[in-house]
Amino acid sequence: MAQTSNRPPRIDNLQYCKWSEDIFRQMRQGGLDAVHVTIAYHETFREMVRNIEAWNLRFERHSGLIMPGRSAEDVRTAQETGRTAVFFGLQTPSPIEDDIGLVEILYTLGVRFMQLTYNNQSLLAAGCYEAEDSGITRMGRQVIREMNRVGLVIDMSHSGERSTLEAIEISERPIAITHANPASWMPARRNKSDDVLRALARSGGMLGFSLYPHHLKDKSHCTLESFCAMVAQTAELMGVDRLGIGSDLCQDQPDSVVEWMRVGRWTKEIDYGEGSREQAGFPAMPAFFRDNRDWENLGEGLRKVGFAANEVSAIMGGNWLHFYDASFGPAQSHAPTPRASTGAMA
To answer: According to the model, what pLDDT value does residue 280 have?
Structure first.
């Protein structure tokens, strides 16, 4: 694809596809300049590192299509060179195990987003599927502080209401909900209340709209008009500059991956999550967004519901780029604090 540096950036802040050259080429055909990819759902630290190794091979083999993303400047470089910058994120805190020191190691390895929980209670917070939301834990407060210090973005996409509101309040830097929609439009455990969305906007945080069918009104049959009208309503609630896309695209993944997402190692039983027993696999994507080649459909839909050209550009990537500029990297106000020695006690 020709260089695209004169065009506002297009950024998708959440995908978990079965990565291939075909998908990377579709990203280029759709003009996608940056993508945040999931590299852990339930993995341990070492298993996450293995996933990074796999990405390093992809960067080597497909260097003309993709490149590592560590900073906002990498998005601009990707635009100038006609590639897609790939940013790493975790949908779980599992890779830090019970060691806060691994937060900085994650950042050093290139991770830029981490959810404090994935559906269930973690050592840090409560997930959206728990009957009781106990909020941010003692360790969670310390991990938020450390994430703020190093520049690792807090993501509360799969967290419960109280935990999400507390994370927004505790964090000294804006957080993100990378892939969810308003619960007022589509009631779902994963979607967010207006209270959460207002608090997120007031704090300077970002919401990425999800295109995963279980998060959409009418699921796979959701129309472009319905989706974009929802975006317009959310803009009235939060302001245009707090909105982006986090499609949650899981292209080409086998249905067995859904079991890994929902079950991991925490149960011996199948957890059907937001789908019924008859719909335990991946649902079909809506017709207007089947894969990365359909990005222009989103732009056309947003224009039709009344967004100005600059607002469309902001939602489709400009807002995420500003967020990356402000969020990645150490904050000067967060100086490291001394840690007790891990040596033998006297």
So the answer is: 64
Q: Please state, in angstroms and rounded to a whole number, the distance separating the CA atoms of residues 204 and 206.
A: 7
Nearby residues of 261 by Cβ (< 8 Å), 6 or more positions away: 41, 273
Determine how β-strand 34-40 pairs with β-strand 11-15: parallel
Let me know if 276 is exposed, middle or buried by CB neighbors in 10 A (0-12, 13-18, 19+): exposed
How far is residue 162's CA from residue 52's CA, in Å, rounded to a whole number?
32
Q: Where are the domains of the chain?
A: 11-327
Q: Is 342 helix (H, G, I), strand (E, B) or coil?
A: coil
User: By C-alpha distance, which of 167, 153, 90 is closest to 124?
Assistant: 167
3-state secondary structure of 326: helix
Residue-wise pLDDT for 59-88, tens only, equals 999 999 999 999 999 999 999 999 999 999
Q: Over 60: is that where the pLDDT of 277 sits?
A: no
* Alpha helices by DSSP H, the chain: 21-29, 45-61, 72-81, 102-108, 138-150, 161-170, 194-202, 224-238, 256-263, 295-304, 309-313, 319-327
Q: How far is CA 61 from the centre of its chain?
A: 25
Q: Answer whether 230's CB lies under 8 Å from 185's CB.
A: yes
Please state, in angstroms and rounded to a whole number, the distance separating the CA atoms of residues 162 and 133. Answer: 6
Q: Please tell me the pTM assigned to this model.
A: 0.92
Give pLDDT, residue 32.
98
- 212, 244, 319 from 312: Cα distances, Å: 21, 10, 10
Amino acid at 57: L
| Class of domain 11-327 as given by CATH | alpha beta
Terminal CA-to-CA distance of the chain, rounded, Å? 64
Q: Cα–Cα distance between 163 and 177 in angstroms, integer?
A: 12
